[in-house]
Sequence to fold (209 residues):
Amino acid sequence: MVPEFVNGLRVTDAATMEIAEMVLNRVNKGLVQKVEALGVHAVGLSGKDGGMLKVTKKLSGGQDIGFVGEIESVDTKIITDLLEKDFLPIICPIGVDEEYNTYNINADDAACAIAKAVKAEKLAFLTDTEGLYRNFEDKDSLIRQITVEDAQALIDSGELTGGMLPKLQNCVDALNAGVNRVHILDGRILHSLLLEIFTNEGIGSAIIK
Fold:
């Protein structure tokens, strides 16, 4: 199957949705296995569980992109119950609409919505790039730190393209909703999260209030 994208978002038809759900659930349980091996108790969940992620159909620039969900609400009960009992929830970005149709959710959208709902202190996106570039072709244009106002101005400027545009918009939305700091990091680097948070210079991009 050839993937199709509209404005950086993947189009999800019925056949793709079925495959995506199988793959995402398999990846989810693989992550649970790895986290358990590190000595942390983890529970793999789908956004369907307990009606956690309720969605409506997401449009991209007015265009229908299939079974892609826009999160309308996040029920945090399962998340908070697990955290209170020292279990780490690992959440698969799949939700349902009012008629219980299954929708794929952009993982960044899901992370942002959950972070806002649980009033997270920090939100970190692990990607396959070094961070946020003003110009992706120019590796010297990596932005180490940017305020939410400057990030919104960068979005409005039209300079950003592809998948980084909706990712940065999610960062801005999270900050405006009460998250204090958002990080965009290269997940390919060992201990990237620790290096970003606990070193003076960091290794990725931080968006702050």
